[in-house]
Structure formats: structure tokens, C-alpha cells
Queue: 2 jobs
Job 1
Amino acid sequence: MDKKSDYSDDIRTIKKIMEESSRFLSLSGLSGIFAGLLAVLGGAIAHFYILNNKTVSINEPLINLSAQEESAMKVQLIGVALIVLILALAGSFYFSYRTARLKDQRIWTPVSKRLLLNMLIPLIAGAFFIIVLYTENQWQLIVPAMLIFYGLALVSAGKFTYSEVFYLGLAELLTGFAAAIFQSSAVFFWVLGFGILNGAYGLIMYRKYQ
Amino acid sequence: MKGSLSGLNKLFENRVRLGIMSVLIVNDSYDFKNLKETLGVTDGNLASHLKALEENNLIKVNKQFIGRKPNTSYSITETGMKLFRYHIKALEDIIKL
């Protein structure tokens, strides 16, 4: 009998080590919730203050503006998006660090490095592409591109962490395609993709794993 | 009891060796320092078990330089993969009895 429980212990150890050395499991659902709230807040600022509550559209309010007002508005919108991005990233690092400490796991491991690399490649490619869209005045494609490259980053990160990240990535991709088709609703899709989807994912993960 | 213990491999009875094989079966390669931290064992202990596994051709050693620092990493051999899978299967069969 003792032998047998030793063997089940062996199996448990094997599975635990295999999982921990191939997947980074210190991601926290709180990162998603925090990023989601920030994105909703950012979307609200864009909609009510910057686009001045006229319409949830990017193209229309620009028509009646002088070139100067238009470029000021673009800078403001990009500023909001960048602040949301930076705070969301900082939040996800902080919450992962905290989770790793609570679980007594290391944060800088071969698998967390692989996770980061696989996420950063699509994100950096996306950043370059978006800069080109901006300089080429393809303004209306920026939000779809953000969502699509973010979705690709999550799909590729999904192999190295919880598999739910992969499905969140697919959902972001679909949102990105929808945003590319319905370009006048860019702010709506931005809030849906970065706010609602991230937040819902975070809530699910938080309840499931914490 | 119809379970024959012949499927279990003596080499994998030790927990450290079991741990090394578990890491290497899901990773292309893993270096000494990270193995040590993942398994929470001492240098000497880890080195002796790695040597035993290497001598039995279950893992292979890759020595290289990263910059000026020597870096030793390990990967599983085909034999190692086959035997370790067989061992896991044997463990599972025994538990099921």
C-alpha cells in the first residue's frame, strides 16, 4: 500500500514539474481586470472628452476640424492609448510578480523568458506597422491593427501559459477583424477588445485559479 | 496482484532523477543553473544524478560558451525519452490496479 502511494506521489511530481517547467503559471487574473478597467476608462475619455461626445466614430468629427485641431486630437488619442498600454503592462508585471511570490515560484525562468519573447515579437511588429499606418495617414486602420496584433501576441503566448490566453487571443483577433470592417465604430471595438474581453478573461481566471 | 514491477526503471526511482527527466521531456534543453533552481537541489547532488543519467545515455550534455562564461545545458536522448515514457506508463498502470 505504501509503495502504491509512493508511485502516485511520483506521478504527481512528474506532472507538476512538467507543467511548471513548460508553462508560466504566475499570470494573475487581476492583470486582465485591471487592464480592462483602464481600457474602458481610456475609451470613455476618448469618447466623451477628446471626440467630444459627438459620435463613437473617428472619421466623422475630423471632417469639420481644421488641420491643427485634427492633429491635436490625434495626439491626444494616441496619448490616451499609450498611457493605457503602459499602465496595463506595468499592472500585469506587478500582479504576476505578486502571484509568483505568493506561490513561492520564480518569475524569471526559461519558460517566462520564452513567453515574453513570443509575446513581444507580434507586439513589436504591430507597433512598427501602426507607426507606418500613422505616418501614412491610414488612421482608420490603427484600432483594427492594435487588436489584431494583440490577438496574435496572445495566441503565440498561449503555448507557454494557461491555455485560456490562447482563446482570449482568438477573441481579440475576431474583434480586430470586426473593427476593420466597421471602421466608424473604432472606439467601441477598442473598448470591447481591450476593456470587456480583457476584463472578462481576468474575472474568469481570477475565479478559477485564485 | 497481477502487476509486474518489471516496467519500472530503477534509474528513475530517485526523486531528483525523476525531476530532471520530467523537465527535459518537455523542454528542448535546460541549463544547470535553472535545473538546480527548478528542482531545489544542491550543486553536488544535481551533478551526480546528471552524471548517472548521462552515463546511461538517457540525457546528453551540451557545453558551450555564452560570451566568456561556460554554459552547460542538458537535453533528453531518444532512449531517455522512450524509457521515461515507459516508466510513467508503468507507474500509471500500477496505480490503476
Job 2
Amino acid sequence: MNYFGLLISITTLFIIGLGFPLVIHGERIFGFLWWPYMMGTGVLLIIASLLIHVDWISALIGVLGATFVWGSTELKEQAVRAELGWYPFNPSKLRSPFESIIKKWRAPHL
Amino acid sequence: MNFIGLLAALTAFFSIWFGHVAVRKIESVSPTIWLPTLIFLVLGLIVEILSLSMVNRLWSVAFGILGITLLFEALELRRQQKRVKKGHAPANPNNPRHAKILAEHSSATILDLLKRDPIGHVISSDESTHLLSTF
């Protein structure tokens, strides 16, 4: 029996669980226009995982990166949920660097 | 270079994506909730057993993460039905189970209220309905 995958996947469940408050609070404080930064953080974490020789740390950093990338695709929909009153709406969000450029891009949604 | 993190990331991302789409679709068209829940549960357990029986760590991680997301989707089907009751996800009037939800829950709607871009301020449900027709 190889318990490695099971242990990693149970921890993965908790990391994905962290993704929910990450998206909710991230959208409330920053707004969905920070999505490229969230996606970039995820990609950097996945690249960092390539350089980690300890298997379990590499795997969990990879999963954390995937959670950030997935979360970045959820921000837009979360912004709409807050506008509908399903979540608290914060009218004074922190503006993202290069916001005017990011606005021209289509925010990802899967 | 250690590719186990990349493999874990890709497996997690694509199985979350698949699960996200599959749960919404299946919950919308399936007349029962228990049958797809049971299928996800059994598939998840089979994939977890596969993970346990793999000698190679890469395969063990890939099957492990896929299996755990399948098990999570089994739970998500019920949560998705709750969203439909609240009107947070669109009801499908052609599905008898959803038709019943539409009749019993005044909050349920056939509109997908999330299918638009954010506009930057809070809006009423009437405004939101109007806005949907412009997207």
C-alpha cells in the first residue's frame, strides 16, 4: 500500500478549502481586477514546486499554486455575487496596478 | 527538477474544472440526486484504491487528487441543489425535480444571475434581470 497519494490528496482537500475564503475575501478587499496577480502568484508557486526536491512539499506547493490559478478564474463571478447582495459588498476596493490595462482584458471564467 | 508538484497542480486544476462543470450540468439534467451522488462516490473510492495500489509516487498523487475531487463532487451535487432552491443557480424547468423546486421555492429562478460582467455597485434583482438581457 502506497499512502503517499492519499495523504497528499487529503491535504489537497484542505488547501482547496482555503480557496473559498481566499476568493471571497480577496474579491471583497481587492476586487476582481486583481485576477492577473492571483493567477501569476499561482503560476510562480507551480514553478517553485519544480525546484523543490522533497516530494511532499513540491506536491503541496503545486496544489497551492493550482488553487490560486483556479481562484483567479472565480473572482469575476464572486464580484457579481457581491453585487447581488449574496456576499457583503465593499464599495472602496484597493485599485490594482495597471487597472486600466487589465480592464481591457477579458477576465477568465471557467 | 521535480515534476511531482507540476503533476499535482495539473491534476488538481483539471479535476476541479471538470468537477465544477460536471456537477452543474448533471445536477441540472438528472431527475434524481442520489444516483449521480452514488456514481461519484463509487468512482472516487475506486480511484483512491488505485492510488493506494500504485508503486510510483507520481501515479499515486495523480489518482489520489483525482479521487478526492470526485468524492468532493458527490457532496457538491447536494450543495448545487441548495443553490438552485435559493436562486443562486438556474433551475431547469424541463427537469421534473427542478420543476418541483420552482413550484415550492419562490426564490428559485430559471435565470442564471451570474452570467454577466460585474458593474461595480450593488443592484436589485429587478435591475439584475434587466441587465442579463443586455449580455
